[in-house]
Write a structure and sequence with these properties.
The protein is an alpha+beta fold. The chain folds into two domains: 2-211, 2-Layer Sandwich (Alpha-Beta Plaits), CATH 3.30.70.1700; 213-261, no CATH class. It has helices at residues 2-16, 105-122, 128-135, 180-190, 196-206, 214-222, 228-231, and strands at residues 26-28, 43-54, 68-86, 92-100, 137-149, 156-168. Strands 1, 2, 3, 4, 5 and 6 form a six-stranded mixed beta sheet that branches. Helix 1 packs antiparallel against helix 3 (128-135) and helix 4 runs antiparallel to helix 5 (196-206). The longest helix has 18 residues, at 105-122.
Length: 261
């Protein structure tokens, strides 16, 4: 699910930017980058990632139509703290890390507000990125919302992990036409400086197989050997080459009626 997964992750991230009280502190899986843009005042943050994916069927090639995947949103109220460490020469140094404190009523209100805001953002008809996301999936499935708790002390943190099950469209296989929603998403990525190079790489990967015969496209999609497409009636594995037949035997049972005879 390479290009589909990538577009889902980017579309979800971009759809949430400036749509919640996290403002621009919405990151595409890069939770480690957040300390660098935070200060010592606690602020809402969201980290977006696509986690597990599963296709339960067997024998259907590598480009499945029954895949489910999990979109994960890590929401927290955190601040950046400086931690003393040794540098590469063994001397004193420091690094920035996120610190998520114990929750209280005010922080709970912030998390609850973000919980409503992300749902609004990802379903907003006026949000171009959310519409790309919705075009890439067949719908939202199971949603789980889990509190982050210190396993040793039992202390409740001001953070929640939300996981949403998605039913994505199939990844285009070799030689297949690129679905309009994927083309639209890649075009929007190309127009965004942070994603332009990545969009060109994925676009090039989708351009392969343009010269394949139809039966070869089916062969690639199903992940089978050359004779199989002919066996299922897609076509003959001759790739347009004339095949000479030296001997034909035709057996017809019953009589043949010729009109007007």
């Amino acid at each position: 699910m390479g290009v589909v997964r990538q577009l889902i992750q980017i579309a979800a991230t971009e759809a949430l930017l400036w749509r919640t009280i996290a403002e621009d502190r919405v990151k595409d899986s890069l939770i480690m980058a957040l300390p660098l843009i935070m200060d010592d005042d606690p602020k809402p943050i969201i980290a977006v990632s696509v986690e597990d994916s599963l296709s339960p069927s067997t024998g259907d090639g590598l480009f499945r139509t029954d895949v489910s995947m999990t979109l994960q949103l890590q929401m927290a109220v955190a601040k950046s703290v400086s931690v003393a460490v040794e540098d590469e020469n063994g001397g004193p140094g420091s690094m920035s890390m996120l610190e998520i404190g114990t929750t209280d009523a005010a922080l709970e209100a912030s998390l609850n507000l973000m919980d409503r805001q992300w749902r609004l953002a990802l379903s907003d008809p006026a949000n171009e990125w959310s519409q790309i996301l919705l075009g890439l999936i067949g719908g939202f499935g199971r949603i789980s919302d889990v509190r982050m708790v210190d396993p040793e002390s039992g202390r409740k943190h001001a953070a929640r992990i939300i996981e949403v099950t998605l039913d994505p469209i199939a990844e285009p296989s070799l030689g297949q036409d690129v679905p309009e929603v994927i083309a639209t998403g890649l075009a929007k990525m190309t127009a965004t400086d942070d994603y332009a190079d990545l969009a060109r790489i994925f676009s090039a990967s989708l351009a392969g197989g343009a010269s394949l015969a139809k039966w070869e496209e089916v062969q690639a999609m199903l992940g089978v050997t050359k004779p199989v497409p002919a066996l299922i009636g897609v076509g003959t594995p001759d790739d347009g080459i004339e095949v000479l037949i030296s001997d034909v035997s035709l057996n017809i049972a019953g009589e043949i009626e010729v009109p007007g005879a």
